[in-house]
Write a structure and sequence with these properties.
alpha/beta
Length: about 90
């Protein structure tokens, strides 16, 4: 979805924020860097996924979208090393 097409959704996020709500949204699982809405809306908090691997530092999950609006990450599991037909983005 483009920023233009997401405008009404982002306005709703802004209205919720103005009313005192904290809007948290998933950054998306598209294996890429394209902003995902509503997470990419200016007043939303976008959360991406990290994979925990034993004693090492968390690393971004390969399926988790990564773009400038992503502000937080949380453990989100692991993914296969390559997308399978059932998990590959369209």
């Amino acid at each position: 979805m483009s920023a233009t097409n997401a405008q009404a959704m982002c306005e709703a996020v802004t209205d919720a924020r103005t009313a005192g709500a904290l809007v948290i949204a998933a950054a998306g699982n598209g294996y890429g860097t394209t902003p995902y809405y509503p997470a990419a809306c200016p007043d939303a908090v976008a959360v991406g996924s990290v994979t925990l691997s034993g004693g090492s530092a968390p690393v971004r999950s390969p399926f988790s979208n990564a773009y400038p609006q992503v502000q937080l990450t949380a453990p989100g599991g692991s993914a296969p090393s390559a997308p399978t037909p059932s998990t590959a983005p369209p």
